[in-house]
């Protein structure tokens, strides 16, 4: 059976000295805390976890590849770029180089190039599988209600795919039967002709 000291020694070997980590993390928190209030709750959590991982990277002995991978994951979650309930299809898969690109000196030994994702709009409507609207922002939502399409003012709640329907009660509908499929920003209000 391992002693407490043995466990602490293993942890320090893998993650660096705890006191050093605490000083680094505390310094990062001092800088970030005064700015965090302007972020949404999911963004605050993402920033918190990113700071934790940065402190581990900066701490001696804690520069592991998974820290960088975790930072990328938290950035995607906090920035609303990833929806765990959305489409499993990835829009930015590597594509093989063309013969011309392969022969070019620009790419050297590189065998693949990442193409940026393309946002597909259909008459101004954006599929929620391609991009979600900002959290807690009212948008027009194209909703499927048992095969019937209806446009409602909706707002995405939290970081997952939960929706708040501003006008659902006037139709006497249960929000559990409504599925948002597409969205677009609300139009600008009309301008006075005066």
Automatic annotation (TrEMBL):
Residue ranges of domain DUF551 in the record: 124-191
Organismal lineage: Bacteria, Pseudomonadati, Pseudomonadota, Gammaproteobacteria, Pasteurellales
Alphabetical list of InterPro entries matching this protein: DUF551, DUF6378
Residue span(s) of domain DUF6378: 4-80
Pfam families recorded: DUF551, DUF6378
Protein's name according to its UniProt entry: Protein of uncharacterized function (DUF551)
Gene source species: Mannheimia haemolytica
